[in-house]
Structures are given as structure tokens and as C-alpha cells.
Design a protein that fits this description.
By secondary structure, the protein is of the alpha+beta class. The protein is built from 4 helices and 4 strands. A two-stranded antiparallel sheet has the order 1-4. The longest helix has 25 residues. It is elongated and about 135 Å long.
Length: about 140
């Protein structure tokens, strides 16, 4: 018999045997042979009480002690909000005090295309530009 089929479980044992089912003599012989060969089999000893004690010791042994850390999220949120407010106020003050560059010398240039053009100067005077002419102030 090959090693693969040496310990094959007989198929008829796996069948559901109901009341009144009689097995043939050949199948009963196989069952008897299995019983005889397994008589000297060293079954592992189940030490139920010892295993139960191991489980109980693991259950009753306290795990790591849980220490609640102080929550920093609310404190952090307050500091973040304060920083945003301070930054916003500082930015607003900086932008409002930003000086607008003044024009120390204003140069105005007026020109006309192919028609005459009347131009009003900043001092209130009015000039007339001829065709294709240019007027510059300092």
C-alpha cells in the first residue's frame, strides 16, 4: 500500500449510518483493523485543568495600565485661533499704513491724431492741439 493511502479513511464510515443499516463483513473487518491498529496509538494527553489555569491567569493578570493623557486639542485650538486673530490684525494694520507712492513730478503728455483736440490742463487752462501734434508738461 502506498504512503498516500496508508491512512485513508474508509468512505463507508463517512456515510451517514441510520438505524437498521447493516454493514457488509468486509467493511466491518476494515473497521476492526482500524480499531486494533489505533489501540497502541499515543494520543496526546489533554491537561484540561492546567490549560484552564493558564487561560485564567492571562485573564486575571491586568494588562497595561491605561493612563489618560491630558487633552491638548482644545488648548491647541485656542492658541491657533489667537494666532490667526493676531496675524489678521497685524496684516490689516500693515496694509492700512502702507504709503501710497506720491508723484513728485508729474509729466503729462497730450497728443492728437488727424483732428484738432482741446485739452484741459490740471491748472484749469485749456489748450488746443492741432493735427498730429504733441504737448508735454513737466
Amino acid at each position: 500500500m502506498s504512503e498516500e493511502f496508508k491512512y485513508k479513511f474508509p468512505e463507508f464510515i463517512a456515510k451517514e449510518l441510520g438505524d437498521g443499516v447493516v454493514l457488509p463483513e468486509s467493511e466491518l473487518k476494515i473497521i476492526d483493523d482500524i480499531y486494533v491498529k489505533s489501540a497502541n496509538f499515543p494520543y496526546p494527553q489533554a491537561s484540561t485543568e492546567m490549560n484552564w489555569q493558564k487561560i485564567q491567569s492571562k485573564i486575571s493578570t491586568p494588562a497595561l495600565e491605561v493612563v489618560k493623557r491630558p487633552t491638548l486639542t482644545f488648548s491647541f485650538a485656542k492658541w491657533a485661533a489667537a494666532a490667526v486673530i493676531v496675524f489678521s490684525v497685524a496684516f490689516g494694520i500693515w496694509k492700512s499704513n502702507e504709503s501710497v507712492p506720491t508723484k513728485l513730478s508729474t509729466q503729462l503728455v497730450f497728443s492728437s491724431s488727424n483732428a484738432m483736440k482741446k485739452v484741459s490742463l490740471p491748472d484749469g487752462s485749456i489748450i488746443t492741439l492741432n493735427n498730429y501734434s504733441k504737448f508735454t508738461t513737466n
